[in-house]
Design a protein that fits this description.
By secondary structure, the chain is mainly beta. It has three domains: about 140 residues, Beta Barrel (Lipocalin); about 110 residues, Lipocalin, CATH 2.40.128; about 110 residues, Lipocalin, CATH 2.40.128.270. About 10% of the residues lie in helices and about 40% in strands. It contains four helices and 30 strands. The strands form four sheets. Strands 1, 2, 3, 4, 5, 6, 7, 8, 9 and 10 form a ten-stranded antiparallel β-sheet that branches. Strands 11, 12, 13, 14, 15, 18, 19, 20 and 21 form a nine-stranded antiparallel β-sheet that branches. It has an eight-stranded antiparallel β-barrel with strand order 22-24-25-26-27-28-29-30.
């Protein structure tokens, strides 16, 4: 049985309900042209629905499925990793052959959503890929009146020739904080070996990777000094020398030592400004608490330089429009929900105010930096948005 590591980063999935209006399954839309479509990449839950409506999932919910050709499946329900087995036919019959097993973590805010998903997938009865290349799984009607789930596909990145950006680092000394700027990254090039940056200095090395085993040669480095980054750099390079195995889960690379005293988690940096879910990590140098989800997604309209902006401000969801002009971004907010949250209202007010500034865009790997005369916002790109091609 595979081991699946619990990853810190959570993914944010925010969609306007109108985007799904055309996605309601129609009579006769069943089956698969090829089952290889099902086995390719990972499938990310974006909505529940019935014949009357389709409703996006809770913002920030990270629920995904991956299917293997041998009949095994695995994924994450929003908090816990799960695994099981299934049967599927090209004609669209689909069901789990046994109850799923899962880890037993508790995650604030997503336990109800996870329970809803696990109940739905275990009562699944058919599946197909619709004309928009989205996976539809039909299940026994829930208490909320929904009877299908909608998923979008993300290809699994390759180990080699991908820019991998560090998102978490655990060593025998404990959890090493990863800053929102000056983040270590690496690329395992088929041609040039390992190269990257350890936070301050450029690094390079040889490497060998076969059948989930990996090892690095002696790491060469430039000799710059960067205030506040040298401890991180030392931990990063020491960790690279300690790891011996790797696994790619969704769009994440996990490097670990055999006893898991060293674990390094990376995200792919193959992201674009638009059609990416950006999560705010710092504002004016102050960290955003991990339990407060502040996010931004820019969804273009056609070939123009404008589109729709949406996200979570920390407590309430917002929508609006935006215009791009070179490296300048102008956002006009249209609506904001009206909930009250004890711990996040000050952060929300400051974020909404910052979005009204004339913003200048800077992208570094999977980091987005928006600056103005008054604010600096640092975002981490968590995933391509479900509406991207």
């Amino acid at each position: 049985m595979k081991k699946y590591l619990t990853l810190k980063a959570t993914l944010m999935l925010i969609l306007a309900a109108t985007l799904f209006a055309a996605c309601v399954p129609l009579a006769g839309q069943k089956g698969f042209t090829s089952l290889e479509t099902l086995y390719s990449g990972t499938w990310h839950l974006v909505a529940y629905g019935n014949k009357e409506k389709t409703v996006p999932v809770t913002p920030g919910l990270k629920t995904f499925l991956a299917f293997e050709a041998d009949g095994n499946l695995y994924g994450n329900g929003g908090c816990n990793n799960f695994f099981g087995s299934y049967k599927v036919t090209k004609q669209g019959s689909f069901k789990l052959t046994e109850p799923v097993g899962s880890t037993l973590m508790f995650c604030e805010g997503f336990m109800d959503e996870e329970a809803t998903f696990l109940a739905a997938i275990q009562s699944a009865k058919s599946a197909f890929v619709n004309e928009d290349d989205q996976l539809v799984i039909n299940f026994k009607e829930s208490a909320e009146g929904y009877n299908f789930m909608l998923f979008v596909n993300r290809p699994t990145p390759t180990l080699r020739d991908t820019d991998w950006v560090l998102s978490s680092l655990i060593t025998s000394d404990g959890d090493i904080p990863v800053p929102s700027t000056d983040v270590p990254w690496l690329n395992l090039s088929e041609k040039d070996g390992m190269y990257g940056n350890s936070g301050c200095n450029t690094i390079g090395s040889s490497f060998e990777a076969t059948d989930r085993s990996i090892s690095f040669g002696m790491i060469a480095s430039t000799m710059m000094y960067c205030e506040g980054l040298m401890d991180l750099e030392l931990s990063f390079t020491n960790a690279l020398e300690a790891v011996s195995q790797y696994e790619i889960i969704e769009d994440q690379l996990v490097l670990s030592s055999e006893d898991f005293t060293t674990v390094m988690t990376f995200f792919t940096a193959d992201l674009t400004l638009e059609n990416t879910q950006w999560r705010l990590y710092t504002r004016n140098g102050e960290d955003i608490p991990a339990d407060i989800h502040v996010s931004l997604t820019l969804s273009p309209e056609g070939e123009s330089n404008d589109g729709t902006v949406s996200g979570s401000a920390g407590c309430n969801n917002y929508t609006g429009s935006y215009v791009l002009d070179g490296d300048h971004l102008t956002i006009n907010l249209i609506s904001l929900t009206a909930k009250f949250c004890d711990t996040s209202m000050d952060i929300e007010a400051a974020f909404i105010e910052a979005l009204q500034d004339e913003l200048v865009i800077q992208m570094e790997k999977n980091r987005l930096i928006l600056t103005s005369d008054y604010n600096t916002l640092h975002f981490l790109g968590e995933a391509p948005s479900p509406t991207s091609e």
